[in-house]
Amino acid sequence: MLKVTVIGSGNVAQHLIRVFNNSPGIEMVQAYARTPQSLLHLLPENKITDSFHNLEEADIYIISVTDDAISEVASALPFSRRLVVHTSGSVSQNSLDSKNKRGVFYPLQTFSKNKEVDFKKVPLCLESEHPEDYIVLEKLANAISDNVYSVDSTQRQSLHVAAVFVSNFVNHMYKLGNDICQTHNLPFDILKPLITETAAKVQLLNPAEAQTGPARRNDQTTIQKHIDFLEDENMKEIYHILSKSIQNTK
Amino acid sequence: MLKVTVIGSGNVAQHLIRVFNNSPGIEMVQAYARTPQSLLHLLPENKITDSFHNLEEADIYIISVTDDAISEVASALPFSRRLVVHTSGSVSQNSLDSKNKRGVFYPLQTFSKNKEVDFKKVPLCLESEHPEDYIVLEKLANAISDNVYSVDSTQRQSLHVAAVFVSNFVNHMYKLGNDICQTHNLPFDILKPLITETAAKVQLLNPAEAQTGPARRNDQTTIQKHIDFLEDENMKEIYHILSKSIQNTK
């Protein structure tokens, strides 16, 4: 039985607590939250604390707080020589206080409060200061996911940047598509099957093969027609730069 | 029984022929292809012609060729006063020769040669010169799809631009994510669940609500860290412009 404590009460923390609760090989020892009420729907009251000094012995402490707070929280922990990891894609392992054994447990997924996520499919990116701790982290990761990767700090940073492109920027493209529909009295629904299919395609083809559209075909007439059609200066600029980038792809 | 003839042998034409073949209320009269062999896997030889003069009577002629060729093909048809439509998102209805009754039958989806598409979910955007022809087009559309929309030429042009954003540009974001993974010896597979979830989210939430990431949080430290991390000038520029666009979103 792996004994786990989660420190934090945000989106990622709550998804982790939920999946740990439902995993046979894992014992949720405690969770820390500044406002314990925020976790009462997930854990009994006696397992939630708002004081680091009440934290009991566990095999792994998972700090899942905002990036800026990780270092401070790690330093505030009143114990040493235990395994302490964070869940951030962009914070280095060394930001954790060296009094404890350090590691990273980074789930590469976008989490929303009101949408269930199938954790079995969530890639978990693991890193540890000491090889023996990696085995513990891997055991925990394998208990909840089928996609476990060993990822060092530079790789993790690159993944975080890549995730901005394939998720945050992609979502912004959806948002601009929605804006265009609204301007022309069309429902966003009309674009949804295309969005689904575009994401489904790259599960099978690599993205370079899957590329279609006027820029891919070097169809300068359509590109110019589209840029002229757009009234918003920001959209014109984005259309121009992304078309140029596609055209420059070898 | 609706009698349909498809003119063209590309991706869209082939997908249409396949779905018409499988639809009880529709009779595939003929298909035109410059190289008839290209359609032999879909139709018997006697239903494929490479001469416009062999085209028999049908209720609807669907021109599904490259945008540049639509006008020429429409003019070359040796008959008049019949219903002739094209399947393009970006060509106006008036590009068709006025000797026939004109219309548009635009499937808003990305089609690949080797990937089946569930046509029931493909939005079909219809337009016709004469109201009585709209009824015929609608009947044909309803026979193959559950998503049929009346879309005028300006709306259709806006959809085509929106589709570039939510599909072509989105795919390019996947491609850049793939490039980043390759540079750091990571498999693209690690990003796939995130890609799927990001597309799934906007089926339920509107894209503005679904937006996450450093730009959305106005986290200038992480944005700068990411831009510094990227070595490619093109990626730096795209990261900067899209972050700015997200930050300027009200």
Automatic annotation (TrEMBL), chains A, B:
Q: Name one Pfam family in it.
A: DUF2520
- Describe the location of the Pyrroline-5-carboxylate reductase catalytic N-terminal domain by residue ranges: 3-86
Question: Transmembrane ranges?
Answer: none
What InterPro entries does the annotation carry?
6-PGluconate_DH-like_C_sf, DUF2520, NAD(P)-bd_dom_sf, P5C_Rdtase_cat_N, TM1727-like_C_sf
Q: Where is the DUF2520 domain?
A: 122-246
Q: What is this protein called?
A: DUF2520 domain-containing protein
- Lineage from the top down? Bacteria, Pseudomonadati, Bacteroidota, Flavobacteriia, Flavobacteriales
